[in-house]
């Protein structure tokens, strides 16, 4: 019986260690369960002792974690209690792109991102692209567009464009007809759009529904607005209820895209729900973000906590 108790106690430590590890990966703002790559990364030893300890304990076993090691010095359950925190493959990709490492103040005090050409660049109302940033590898993806003729807004960065082609091909094979509406936008184009929206809708609404110049993901070349005939290729919330919008929400991450402005997250992203706006972050990160049901902001925050925890 005593031997069995020792094994049970050791298993207890293993589980406690696992919980500690998971806590380190949890996002502050999300109650979504952390699954997938994070869990598969657990650094618990795989050689959980299957043989009983050689030494017979002289005292009755207790549940006390401080006592167990002293009673069986040949075992090392103490290491199970504090496993080293490992970083998931998805978080590891973000190591050089953490928000705290990739921002500087300009002369006017605005926060400017420094990793402009990273696939993981975080651009939002707090993090501006430089006004002169223009991606170097813009191409026009071979997908159907909602309009004809040449336009700079047909462009995306090469890797994102190629991923978009795969996404559209898969949709088409599932009988889903999508069309691309708007991709790359320069700083000056975004400036015109925002100013025109302010005139038409007022500053408050314009701010919630369109980005100020420098704060648009479209300037990264990694975003595309997508719609369908069922909503007359409009960029509106009802697209999310169409079978095309639902297909996009379900499968975008398999091609490296996330629905960047999800429903109910306006307080975090700063933007209303946009079921049509997808952002390329690569498959590994897209799948992890989607599975955890978090915004990119929350995801980066969780990555910071693991990789660069505040002292
Ligand atoms: Zn958009």
From TrEMBL:
This is D-alanyl-D-alanine carboxypeptidase. Residues 154-283 form the D-alanyl-D-alanine carboxypeptidase-like core domain. It comes from the Bacteria. Residues 1-21 form the signal peptide. GO terms for biological process: proteolysis. PANTHER family: D-ALANYL-D-ALANINE CARBOXYPEPTIDASE (PTHR34385), PEPTIDOGLYCAN L-ALANYL-D-GLUTAMATE ENDOPEPTIDASE CWLK (PTHR34385:SF1). It comes from Cohnella phaseoli. One of its GO terms (molecular function) is carboxypeptidase activity. Residues 40-49, 56-66 have a biased composition (Low complexity). Keywords: Carboxypeptidase, Hydrolase, Protease, Signal. Pfam families: VanY. Residues 26-81 are annotated as: Disordered.
């Amino acid at each position: 019986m005593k031997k069995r108790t020792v094994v049970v106690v050791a298993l207890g430590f293993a589980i406690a260690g696992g919980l500690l590890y998971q806590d380190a990966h949890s996002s502050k703002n999300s109650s979504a369960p952390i699954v997938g790559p994070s869990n598969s990364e657990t650094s618990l030893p795989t050689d959980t002792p299957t043989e009983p300890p050689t030494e017979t304990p002289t005292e009755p076993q207790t549940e006390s974690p401080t006592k167990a090691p002293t009673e069986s010095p040949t075992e090392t359950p103490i290491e199970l209690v504090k496993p080293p925190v490992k970083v998931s493959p998805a978080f590891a990709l973000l190591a050089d792109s953490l928000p705290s490492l990739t921002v500087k103040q300009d002369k006017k005090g605005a926060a400017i991102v420094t990793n402009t050409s990273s696939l993981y660049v975080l651009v939002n109302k707090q993090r501006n692209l430089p006004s002169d940033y223009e991606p170097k590898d813009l191409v026009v993806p071979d997908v159907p567009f909602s309009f004809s003729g040449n336009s700079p807004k047909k462009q995306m960065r090469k890797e994102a464009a190629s991923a978009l082609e795969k996404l559209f091909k898969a949709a088409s094979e599932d009988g889903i007809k999508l069309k691309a509406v708007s991709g790359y936008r320069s700083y000056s184009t975004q400036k015109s759009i925002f100013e025109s929206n302010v005139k038409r809708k007022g500053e408050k609404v314009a701010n919630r529904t369109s980005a100020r110049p420098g704060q648009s993901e479209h300037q990264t070349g990694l975003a595309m607005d997508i719609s369908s005939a069922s909503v007359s290729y409009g960029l509106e919330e009802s697209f999310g209820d169409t079978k095309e919008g639902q297909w996009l929400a379900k499968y975008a991450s398999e091609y490296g895209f996330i629905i960047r402005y999800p429903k109910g997250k306006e307080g975090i992203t700063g933007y209303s729900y946009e079921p049509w706006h997808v952002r390329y972050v690569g498959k590994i990160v897209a799948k992890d973000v989607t599975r955890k049901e978090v915004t990119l902001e929350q995801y980066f925050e969780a990555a910071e906590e693991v990789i660069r925890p505040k002292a």
